[in-house]
């Protein structure tokens, strides 16, 4: 098992691959609503934008999130909500792309006729492309190293024809950004639970209201991704230049339910 921060996984790998191997893939996620005993096909476009051949191996794994939003990966079939065994990818498992060549993978998902259609609302898997002919690159000390690159496409499956997410706030508190009690910069921590029957893709938007001056400060939004049953801790970093005083923080969790956003408020005092 290994992990990469959830909100950075695909963008980080995409940038790294484009810089070193010039491999482009799209889309980053595939969504299926496929009945038991039926099959559905979707496609992953891949392109070698570089001037050297790229050799790839295709594999399917399990994945999930931890409470901080990090991705964890496992061998196929290890997780209760896995649909990795229902996924086949063609062509594969080995692919070679010539310079400037483009192709597409066909990803077929076929739940078995006896699949449990009631107790697991969302199943997941990950299609990985791993480079076999590692790219030589220079390390910081000038030595030559070879870097094996990997990029993944997430698979989501539901037996329902509509995604039905629901998020509730279970805690909202302020905290020091490190163990130093005199730390000037602080953080807020928002604890959420996905108690619905669908995947959540949204953001947390936070606004601060200085109760002494009446000034409002809108903070940078924080991405939010989760699966049914996930409990998530969202860290909201306060600006280092924020003046001390009494504040009201309002966090709006926006995940597609435009008329029913989840809202949390916290009154806190910032020492400066």
Count of alpha and pi helical runs: 1
Task: Estimate the strand proportion.
Answer: over 45%
What is the mean pLDDT?
Answer: 85
**Structural class label:** mainly beta
Uncertain regions spanning at least 5 consecutive residues: 1-20
Shape descriptor: globular
Rg, nearest Å: 22 Å
What is the straight-line distance between the termini? 42 Å
Largest sheet: 7 strands, mixed
User: What is the number of strand segments?
Assistant: 21
Helix-strand pattern: EHEEEEEEEEEEEEEEEEEEEE
Explain what you see.
This protein is mainly β. 4% of the residues lie in helices and 53% in strands. The protein is built from one helix and 21 strands. The strands form five sheets. Strands 1, 3, 5, 6, 8, 10 and 13 form a seven-stranded mixed beta sheet that branches. It is globular.
Protein traits:
mainly beta; seven-stranded mixed beta sheet; five-stranded antiparallel beta sheet; 1 helix; globular; 272 residues; disordered N terminus
Write the layout of secondary structure elements.
Blueprint lengths: L1 E4 L3 H12 L2 E4 L2 E5 L6 E9 L5 E12 L4 E5 L12 E4 L3 E4 L4 E8 L13 E9 L3 E4 L5 E4 L2 E9 L8 E10 L9 E9 L5 E11 L5 E3 L3 E5 L4 E7 L7 E10 L7 E9 L2
Parallel strand pairs: 3-13
Antiparallel strand pairs: 1-6, 2-4, 4-9, 5-6, 5-8, 5-10, 7-9, 10-13, 11-12, 14-15, 15-19, 16-17, 16-18, 16-20, 20-21
């Amino acid at each position: 098992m290994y992990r990469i921060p959830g909100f950075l996984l695909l963008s980080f790998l995409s940038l790294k691959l484009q810089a070193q191997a010039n491999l482009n893939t799209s889309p980053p996620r595939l969504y299926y609503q496929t009945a038991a005993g039926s099959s559905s096909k979707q496609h992953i476009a891949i392109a070698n934008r570089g001037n050297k051949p790229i050799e790839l191996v295709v594999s399917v794994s399990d994945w999930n999130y931890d409470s901080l939003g990090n991705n964890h990966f496992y061998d196929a079939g290890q997780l209760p909500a896995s649909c990795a065994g229902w996924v086949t990818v063609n062509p594969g498992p080995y692919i070679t792309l010539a310079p400037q060549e483009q192709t597409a993978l066909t990803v077929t998902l076929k739940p078995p006729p006896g699949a449990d259609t009631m107790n697991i609302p969302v199943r997941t898997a990950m299609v990985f492309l791993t480079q076999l002919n590692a790219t030589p690159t220079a390390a910081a000390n000038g030595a030559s190293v070879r870097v094996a690159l990997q990029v993944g496409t997430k698979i989501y499956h539901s037996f329902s024809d509509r995604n039905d997410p629901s998020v509730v706030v279970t805690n909202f508190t302020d905290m020091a950004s490190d163990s130093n009690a005199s730390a000037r910069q602080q953080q807020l921590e928002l604890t959420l639970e996905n108690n619905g029957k669908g995947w959540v893709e949204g953001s947390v938007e936070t606004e601060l209201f200085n109760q002494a001056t009446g000034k409002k400060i809108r903070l940078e939004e924080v991405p939010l991704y989760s699966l049914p049953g996930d409990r998530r801790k969202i860290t909201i970093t306060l600006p280092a230049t924020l003046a001390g005083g009494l504040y009201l923080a309002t966090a709006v969790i926006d995940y597609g339910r435009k008329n029913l956003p989840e809202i949390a408020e916290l009154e806190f005092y910032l020492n400066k």
